[in-house]
Amino acid sequence: MKNIILFLALSSTILLTSCTGEQGPPGGLVYANIFETTVNSYQYDAVHNEFYSNTVSFPFTVYESDAVLVYRLSGSDNVVNPPADVWTQLPQSIFYNDGTGDFFQYNFNSTFLSVQFTIEGNFPLSNIANEDITNQVFRVAVVPAQFAKTNPSMEKLLEVMEANDTHVQTIENNKQ
After folding, report:
1. Which of 4, 97, 141, 148 is 20 to 30 A from residue 168's alpha carbon, by CA?
2. Which stretch is the leader sequence (predicted)?
């Protein structure tokens, strides 16, 4: 008898439970596309004091809404066997430990067609060590994304928050 009551309770719970709202998009796993590239040389722009690489085209389709992440191979972890690569996300700043406060930064620019790697700094980069600008390995990850469908107005935002404009603080700029 207890089993029948338990069965009826579970059955009614499952049958009477329902979801509300619009059907969501179909599920499934979406993976990021990843590739690695080595930059063997940069061009130096003395006017802007920066190095830049040639552009590297994506070897797969990338959409304007996709997010591009770039990592630089910054070393290896020899504690594990076999050693593991250590990747650092860009931008990555390298500070000199010589008391000058000098630093440079690995960075990148991207479109949905290509990626370009740059090195920027606060000192004349023509003096940068050769090993910092040659044979640099980068891992580029393109994460699928979609643009938001709407850009809510302030009125819609206040409506969702169940507030009105009297709850919004106005800051006056009295500079003349």
Report:
1. 148
2. 1-17
Task: Give the long-range contacts of residues 28-33, CB within 8 A, separation 24 or more.
Answer: 30/144, 32/141, 32/142, 32/143, 32/144, 33/58, 33/60, 33/62, 33/141, 33/142
pTM: 0.68
**Amino acid making up residue 81:** N
DSSP string, 50-117: EEEPPPEE-SS---TTSEEEEEEEEEEETTSSS-EEEEEESSEEEE-SSSS--EEEEEEEE-SSEEEE
Q: Read off the DSSP letter of residue 15.
A: H
If you average pLDDT over every residue of the chain, what do you get?
A: 84
Give the start-to-end residue ranges of the domains of the chain: 30-143
pLDDT tens track for 58-88: 999 999 999 999 999 999 998 888 989 999 9
**DSSP conformation class of 46:** T
CATH architecture of 30-143: Sandwich (2.60)
Q: What residues contact 69, with CB distance under 8 A and at least 6 apart?
A: 89, 140, 141, 142, 143
Look at phi and psi of residue 174 and say left if phi exceeds 0, alpha if psi is from -120 to 50, else beta.
Answer: alpha
99-145 residue pLDDT tens: 888 999 999 999 999 999 999 999 999 889 899 999 999 999 999 98
Q: Encoding tokens for residue 101? A: 């406060």
